[in-house]
Amino acid sequence: MGKSEGNSETWLVTYSDLVTLLLVFFVLLYTLTPGVEDSTFNSFIQYFQKNSSFFKENAVSVQSVNNQEESEEYTEQKMERMKAFIDYLEEEKLESEVNIQFTSDGIKITLSDSLTFESGSSELLPKAKEVLQKVGTTIDKGILKVEVQGHTDNVPVASTSKHESNWHLGAARAVSVVQHLQLNAAIEPKRFKATSFGEYNPITENKTPQGRRSNRRVEIYLRDRITPRRLNPAVSVPDLSSIQIN
Length: 246
Known about the structure:
By secondary structure, the chain is an alpha+beta fold. It has helices at 2-7, 11-32, 38-50, 52-91, 113-116, 126-137, 166-181, 209-215, 228-231, and strands spanning 98-103, 106-112, 143-151, 192-198, 217-224.
């Protein structure tokens, strides 16, 4: 019902175009017809100027309807792509390695350290490349920005490591993920961003092996150009509990 009501307002676009054509016609008629007083012509033009707000208001109304439909359609497509990605994770039994959450401006995907890298390394493991290929296919032109954050635990890097510190290790890992995501993404490289938090943004304490394992992670933020509530507050946001993998 909502879509049919929205489509009923599209006649306003055609109507405003018709009136614009009539205005052009009368201007041409004035220029080709001798004897028409300037005051008469100016009064005619002023009439259209006074009533131009009508066309502007209704043009905004039609644009709002189109934006609402675009938002709903994009949200549905996004959910379908993420559902396919989640199905893949379940088939590969990777639920414990990947966490997916919907945020206020897009989607957050967290990859575990054991899935992505060997200890102290920034070279992606084969399975991580496969997962990132799937993630890349969900990055369409509706994504405004992709930010990849590298996080480590508080254990200092080995003296033999090519990385000087956990800052450098987190940065190198984030860059590795970005480079692989770009291979399958439908957006230009300038929309990607790689950052490192090193050991300084833990999600739990580093006192136990499990805690340190949780802190070693890569977070991928897919920030949407269109979000369900940005264009239309009435668009419902899906229940996160039904799609979150943890």
